[in-house]
Amino acid sequence: MANAWFESVAEAQRRAKRRLPKGVYGALVAGSERGLTAEDNLAAFAELGFAPHTAGLSNDKQMATRVMGQDVALPVLISPTGVQAVDPDGEVAVARAAASRGTAMGLSSMASKPMEEVIAANPQTFFQLYWVGDRDLMAAKVERARRAGAAGLIATLDWSFAYGRDWGSPFIPERIDLEAVRRYAPQVALKPRWLWEFAKTRKLPDLTVPNMVGTPGEKAPTFFEAYGQWMQSPMPTWEDVAWLRELWGDQPFMLKGVMRVDDAKRAVDAGVTAISVSNHGGNNLDGTPAAIRALPAVAEAVGDQVEVLMDGGIRRGGDVAKALALGAKAVMIGRAYLWGLAANGEAGVGNVLDLLRDGLGSALVGLGHTSIDELSPADLVVPPHFERHLGEDGADAPEAQRSAGKGTTA
Question: Which residues are glyoxylate-binding (predicted)?
Answer without folding.
Answer: 165, 280
